[in-house]
Design brief:
Length: 103
């Protein structure tokens, strides 16, 4: 595995649940890790969209007055982070596909 692939594996594992580090296959097969990390980030994005959609009616009444804006800001920032990381994971997957041996 080249230096950039080792760095990519480390970064991709940071995007996944901590338990993913226990699976040897993810380190052994970086393309598989990139694929599953991309799917995991997609699921997180979908959850964040649902939270954005539901936060006002479900959480708004439980929060102190004036605090909903802080929660919305945090959701927006997290959504941007997830979108950027999803794109980066997809680019890594493409780079790993290009390096894969032809069959």
């Amino acid at each position: 595995m080249s230096g950039w692939e080792e760095a990519a594996v480390s970064w991709l594992l940071d995007q996944c649940p901590a338990d993913y580090r226990a699976y040897r296959a993810w380190r052994k097969h970086p393309a598989a890790l990139a694929w599953v990390a991309t799917r995991h980030l997609e699921a997180q994005l979908e959850a964040m969209r649902g939270a954005w959609r539901d936060v006002r009616p479900e959480l708004g009444p439980l929060l102190p007055p004036g605090s909903l804006g802080d929660v919305l800001d945090s959701l927006a920032r997290e959504g941007l982070r997830l979108r950027a990381n999803h794109r980066a994971a997809g680019l890594l997957l493409e780079a790993l596909r290009l390096r894969a041996p032809m069959r």
